[in-house]
Design goal:
75 residues, mainly alpha
């Protein structure tokens, strides 16, 4: 995964998968998603017992950015 490419470069890549197009977004949006408790609190004691709340915050951050397609749903 290369997070720091232009959208044009990503779409022109020979291995580009059109189904992954929803994953192309500005660095500021990636920073917002990765700054939530799911990622920020990984080294805290009791992280696993609270990871459900972190996942909910992660999904809400995605929804706030309009990222609700199947691409973002956990498998």
């Amino acid at each position: 995964m290369n997070l720091f490419r232009s959208e044009e470069h990503a779409r022109n890549w020979s291995s580009f998968e059109p189904a992954s197009a929803d994953g192309i977004m500005p660095v500021a949006d990636w920073a917002r998603i990765f700054s939530g408790p799911l990622f920020r609190d990984r080294l805290d004691p009791g992280y696993l017992s609270r990871s459900g709340a972190g996942r909910a915050a992660f999904m809400q951050a995605l929804a706030d950015l309009g990222k609700t397609s199947d691409f973002w749903r956990p498998g």
